[in-house]
Design a protein that fits this description.
About 35% of the residues lie in helices and about 25% in strands. It is of the alpha+beta class and about 200 residues long. The strands form two sheets. It has a four-stranded mixed sheet. Strands 3-2-7 form a three-stranded antiparallel sheet, with no helix packed on it.
């Protein structure tokens, strides 16, 4: 592994530890995440004399910019769409989450569908690139969401631990929605996916 690849690898581990420290509640896991974070940070500091194009994204002097999340609307041959039930709030949303460092948007979209819905799908295109900031909690970091449309292929595995149910719905029969995404956003995304008119605000 060359030094640039090692740097990217360490940044990826740093991203995993940041997420673990943010969401884990287990004291043993938190201790391990802290140790892993410390070790990779030390290695990153030792690589600072290498002239690399990519920055350390966890330094505080990185230019502030909105977070990017991914959502995918997966349709079946009955024009129903797949939604997942969040364990933490009991509401449904489209499969999705924050984009990981170095993932292509399409890779992130398909990964979230597989992890959250346990499904394999074929992406058909982008239907929306929306500003989520007006709909978010005032304390949240401003964010954009990139929305894909996909065609269901098959279920391949169980959904992950953050999801308690995976189910098909229609626009006339929406379930109780997760507060992570508003009904207005859901309807706008669905309208874009159904009509093919891309939202780009």
């Amino acid at each position: 592994m060359n030094k640039e690849n090692l740097y990217d690898y360490l940044i990826k581990i740093q991203a995993i530890t940041k997420i673990g420290l943010l969401f884990s509640k287990d004291p043993y896991a938190l201790k391990n995440y802290e140790e892993l974070q410390s070790l990779t940070l030390k290695m990153l500091e030792e690589l600072q004399d290498v002239n690399l194009e990519r920055n350390n994204y966890f330094k505080r002097d990185v230019y502030p910019t909105p977070n990017i999340s991914i959502r995918t609307i997966v349709f079946n041959d009955k024009n129903e769409f797949l939604m997942v039930k969040e364990v933490d709030d009991g509401g449904y949303s489209f499969p999705g989450g924050w984009a990981d460092l170095y993932d292509a948007p399409s890779e992130a979209a398909l990964r979230e569908v597989k992890e959250e819905a346990g499904a394999e799908a074929k992406l058909e295109g982008i239907v929306a690139f929306m500003n989520r900031t007006p709909f978010s909690d005032p304390t949240s970091v401003p964010g954009y969401v990139l929305v894909f449309k996909a065609q269901f292929i098959k279920f391949t595995n169980n959904h992950d631990h953050e999801i308690s149910d995976v189910r098909w719905f229609t626009i006339d029969n929406l379930p109780n929605l997760s507060p992570k995404i508003t009904k207005d956003e859901i309807l706008r995304m669905l309208n874009a996916a159904i009509t093919g008119k891309i939202i780009f605000d």
